[in-house]
């Protein structure tokens, strides 16, 4: 996967509460790898393009390293064009299964949250 | 230019922090190369992109060698080598003068000081690497205790706690120093560059080469070399 230069699909504010990002960044990164192997800057750009703000390397790489240890991703150094190589991350089958599971869980959670928030408030009732 | 300097300092700190955590050289090389790749892509300073080097090294949670491996493989042999070298130094002058080796308790206490400092290194290694003044202070204490052990050496047999023939101590300490040097040389020959920091983006090792090999060999034979110099000095000054 390469860094896209198409117009951004920003999904609103990029100033999400850090707790929200901490909770979701894991499967968002797995999702960013679902289209194929990718490298650090491309993953950061992909998430930024979709409105999640700029993820720092100090957040991204420790997460990917933990996923590599857990067998969710594999890494490979590929030669660069006349320059230093790039480290590519790729989803394993376990990682793909985990992405499907977490995505489904998240959709159920966000659906429950939305339904609850959409309920009429009982303010003023006794 | 300023960014290059601060980035270099950050990477030096990162390597130090990962080494302190006993992370293997190949994993350190991978970490450095991937961080440099991202900095090239973004053009941002390392501190801004990754945070403090110490926090980043901790957050990575890279696999590390068992905590006590370096104590068994490096610290105990070094401590034993130092002890042998100190004993050699005590024995060499009386031997060249055909005198007895005289020892007092105070002198022994001063001699034991650097050995104790090194033996307990695992307890405070992190602190002395991060604080240069502590490193200088402890080195000063070690050197001062060496000088004081010479000053407090008994001048005649009446002052001495022990009076022994220096030759067995001289031979024994020499054998220990040479045996440890042979062991270290064999180990470094069997595992050349095993823990070097290698750059996976270009598949080259950063710390191999003739100069590095010479330094390794000098380090392996440091105590016998210094002991030989002390023997020469003692023979000249007798």
From TrEMBL, chain A:
It comes from Arthrobacter echini. It holds the Pfam family PadR. Gene3D superfamilies: Winged helix-like DNA-binding domain superfamily/Winged helix DNA-binding domain (1.10.10.10). InterPro entries: Metal_resp_DNA-bind_regulator, Tscrpt_reg_PadR_N, WH-like_DNA-bd_sf, WH_DNA-bd_sf. This is PadR family transcriptional regulator. It comes from the Bacteria. Residues 30-99 form the Transcription regulator PadR N-terminal domain.
Automatic annotation (TrEMBL), chain B:
It comes from the Bacteria. The chain crosses the membrane at residues 74-93, 105-125, 132-153, 218-237. Keywords: Membrane, Transmembrane, Transmembrane helix. This is Uncharacterized protein. It comes from Arthrobacter echini.
